[in-house]
Design goal:
This protein is of the alpha/beta class. It has helices at residues 16-33, 35-44, 59-67, 80-92, 109-115, 133-142, 159-163, 170-176, 180-189, and strands at residues 48-53, 71-77, 99-103, 118-124, 144-155, 195-200, 203-209. Bound molecules: S-adenosylmethionine. S-adenosylmethionine binds next to strand 2.
Length: 210
């Protein structure tokens, strides 16, 4: 199994230039790399209260809010600079009144408890950044309503992208991501038996029901 190489120091994306660059990348590439995720999400719910972890600038958040007029989204973003950018972008997209962007970490248990309970929790390409994924999964499970569901979508470690001799960018993220077996071990260790995982290189996703 290829060794996991966590992101060097950079677990959150900060700085105006970098965060705005990330939004430009999402505008150019988001419709490709988020297509399958959006299909999975739409198969799980079409409204209610959602919690998103690590929205970044909120590109996918705006798509979801526009496609599902009945949804209310709480978006929890660790990077203060990303949170500011996301609030502006979501307001510009006309969905700012249905999305509440909060700055904080999924690993912060008291904060997660204060957020309440949700019908659907989702996240894209954030899981591999979390320093304590087991603690985060525990917090997320606790934030699901009865019959609620979560969808965590990320890269899968390995394959050709892992081995490319390139440093920054998705190669680094692929090296920091998890293998399905590691996710199974975390979920089973937490007693969360009701899950499924799927893989379509370079993506890996997990759904957990309550
Ligand atoms: C690679 S970006 C993904 C952004 C967007 N979801 C996408 O699909 O492009 C990962 C995001 O997760 C955020 N993040 C990292 N660790 C986090 C944590 N512990 N709690 C909440 N957000 C976190 C980062 O600040 C960053 O904005």
């Amino acid at each position: 199994m290829p060794k996991r190489i966590p992101h060097e120091a950079l677990t959150v994306i900060t700085g105006r230039e970098t965060t705005e660059g990330y939004l430009r990348m999402q505008k150019a590439m988001g419709r490709f790399y988020l297509r399958h995720f959006l299909r999975c999400l739409e198969g799980l719910a079409n409204g209610g209260s959602f919690l998103e972890i690590g929205p970044g600038p909120g590109y996918q958040t705006a798509i979801i809010a526009r496609r599902m007029p009945g949804v209310r989204i709480t978006a929890l973003e660790y990077s203060a600079d990303m949170a500011v950018l996301a609030r502006g972008y979501l307001a510009e997209q006309g969905v700012g009144d249905r999305v509440n962007v909060i700055q904080g970490s999924v690993e912060d248990q008291p904060l997660m408890r204060r957020l309440g309970a949700f019908d659907l929790i989702y996240s894209t390409f954030s899981l591999h950044h979390w320093e304590d994924p087991v603690g985060a999964l525990r917090n997320l499970h606790g934030a699901l309503k009865e019959d609620g569901c979560m969808l965590l979508y990320d890269f899968v470690r390995g394959g050709p992208l892992y081995h490319l001799p390139l440093k920054r960018g998705i190669w680094e993220s692929v090296r920091a991501s998890y293998r399905p077996e590691e996710i199974w071990e975390m979920l089973e260790g937490l007693g969360m038996g009701d899950y499924t995982t799927g893989k379509r290189y370079p993506y890996l996703w997990v759904t957990v029901s309550r």
